[in-house]
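Narrative summary of target 7.
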Amino acid sequence: MSSSLRADRRRRRVRGPRGYARADARIRQDVCAALGRHVDLDATKIEVKVVSGEVTLAGSVRDRAAKRLAADVAADAHGVKDVKNQLRLSKPKRAQPVRKGSSSSSPSVAPTRSV
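Modeled conformation, tokenized:
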């Protein structure tokens, strides 16, 4: 058998018997593992739910590319029928502006009078 034929067989999707459906828990486990392994994706704020083979991604990612990548990675898992991408883009944290003329570190206290 030629090496190209063997490589082609490895790339084919495996099909189960008629009526077979992969368990949601196994699909979730595979999707979570794939998201965690991907070097270009921070999956720490992604939540994965699977119901009847449909994967729902929720949480936040840093940019649109990461949002698309997470959906693509989830879709490639064996047994996934559909992916609902509900990921949101996380807002970058901005530094608080410093007010001129007042110290924000100490509260203002009215002076006391001695009688």
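The domain at 21-89 is CATH 3.30.1340.30 (Histidine-containing Protein; Chain: A;).
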